[in-house]
Design brief:
The complex is a heterodimer of chains A (about 120) and B (about 290). Chain A has 2 helices and 8 strands. In chain A, about 20% of the residues lie in helices and about 55% in strands. In chain A, helix 1 runs antiparallel to helix 2. In chain B, about 65% of the residues lie in helices and about 15% in strands. Chain B has 7 helices and 6 strands, in the order ααβαβαβαββαβα. In chain B, helix 3 runs parallel beside helix 4. The two termini of chain B are about 35 Å apart. Classes of the chains: A alpha+beta (about 120), B alpha/beta (about 290). The interface between A and B is medium-sized, with 27 and 32 residues. Strand 5 of chain A pairs parallel with strand 6 of chain B.
């Protein structure tokens, strides 16, 4: 069995995802970076972008985050994001409606999500 | 002695009050469950954020660290962020916040410091407006409820941060009710600026971290976020505590109304009996006189 690392994606409202994965790709402010098992401890500021979860060489989950923080230590990757949306279950029409009612920052984020769907 | 009709009216009015308090209790209980879940779901984010800040702060150089972390070296002016409820009928919930605020303001003023207030929630803002209305920098409503939006907390955090950077105040403390369990709330004071950081447990783990960008930059970008996060979790806790307080208060009110109805019914029945007896005596003595 392949080595895995534990991913936690946490927003202020709840824990979005918590699972063992083979690789996580996160949008750092200084560029995308991937985290494999036994990655060196790292604390990175994240920008708006997509967090990709890789399992068995394939992308299994994609989350859009609106900036945040990644804390990699030992076998644990914690991503703290103020806003996050699971692209796998997102619905463009519903998001569009939400964006119309949201404030500027929120709407900008939702539009970015819609574009990347 | 009240007439029978008066008593009847009184009993009916207590009964309808009881119905209202019973309904409010149920509503509060239903909302409480959701608010409690929200408060508990919000804890991991706050805890982890605190852990990261503690890790970074432990290594920050005291002389070059951002002012949000170490303060601006003065403590002449204080900002109190007071979180109360928008609505009443929740027992001592707002009262204890108001009282604590008054004590705190008196203490700080006693030490010769200027105090400013940022009021969140209508109740304490109204209660203290006459005394301290001049010190209000803002008073907000409608940010609490069963669904606290992080955006609201972020806005509040931004207000606090920009106020600090403009030199409006030197120290910022937040006063709110923490949800302990359904019958207990605790008034908490927590300091926002300078940021209160716990120990970075596990020094050896923190010593070989890589940072992206550099530590100072990272710390500077994170500190505003920890303020928002702290405010957000305080809002969540306070909302849950408010509903819990309301539930308990309404439960007591319903029980008291029940007791009162029993007492009034007893008086009513006695008076009715007395009236009947009186009438009988009159009839009998009237018949005897014939």
């Amino acid at each position: 069995m392949a080595e895995t690392t534990q991913l936690e994606l946490v927003t202020p409202a709840r824990i979005m995802a918590q699972k063992s994965v083979q690789m996580v790709v996160a949008p750092g402010v200084e560029g995308l970076f991937g985290v494999l098992p036994r990655h060196a401890s790292l604390l990175a500021d994240l920008t708006r972008g997509i967090v990709e979860v890789h399992e068995d060489g394939k992308v299994t989950d994609r989350f859009m985050i609106d900036g945040g923080l990644a804390d990699v230590s030992g076998e644990l990757v914690t991503i703290l994001a103020e806003r996050a949306i699971d692209l796998g279950s997102a619905d463009a029409a519903a998001l569009k409606e939400k964006a119309a009612n949201a404030n500027e920052a929120e709407a900008a984020f939702l539009n970015a999500v819609i574009e990347s769907l | 002695m009240a007439s029978l009709k008066d008593l009847k009216t009184r009993i009916n009015s207590v009964k309808s009050t009881q119905k209202i308090t019973a309904a409010m209790k149920m509503v509060a209980a239903a909302k409480l469950r959701r608010a409690q879940e929200a408060a508990e779901a919000g804890r991991p984010y706050a805890d982890r954020m605190r852990g990261v800040i503690a890790n970074l702060a432990a290594k920050a150089d005291a002389s070059s660290a951002p002012a949000l972390l170490v303060g601006n070296g003065e403590a002449a002016s204080h900002l109190l962020v007071v979180i109360s409820a928008d609505r009443g009928l929740c027992g001592g919930f707002n009262g204890s916040i108001t009282r604590q605020t008054r004590t705190e303001v008196a203490r700080l003023q006693g030490e010769g410091k200027t105090v400013k207030l940022l009021m969140v929630g209508r109740k304490s803002a109204d209660a203290l407006r006459r005394e301290f209305g001049d010190s209000y920098i803002a008073s907000l409503e409608g940010v609490q409820g069963t669904a606290v939006a992080f955006a609201d907390a972020a806005d509040l955090g931004e207000t606090v941060r920009s106020g600090f950077e403009n030199g409006d105040f030197d120290v910022c403390t937040m006063i709110y009710n923490k949800f302990i369990n359904a019958i207990t709330q605790e008034v908490k004071l927590s300091q926002l600026i300078p940021a209160e950081v716990g120990d970075a447990g596990g020094d050896e783990a923190g010593s070989n971290y890589d940072y992206e960008p550099e530590e100072d930059e990272l710390l500077a970008s994170l500190l505003p976020r920890i303020i928002s996060t702290q405010i957000y979790s305080a809002l969540l806790e306070s909302s849950a505590a408010e509903l819990a307080a309301r539930m308990t208060a309404m439960d007591n009110a319903t029980r008291n109304a029940g007791d009162m109805i029993d007492r009034l019914t007893l008086v009513y029945n006695r008076s009715r009996q007395a009236a009947i007896t009186n009438e009988l005596i009159e009839i009998i003595s009237g018949a005897e006189a014939l």
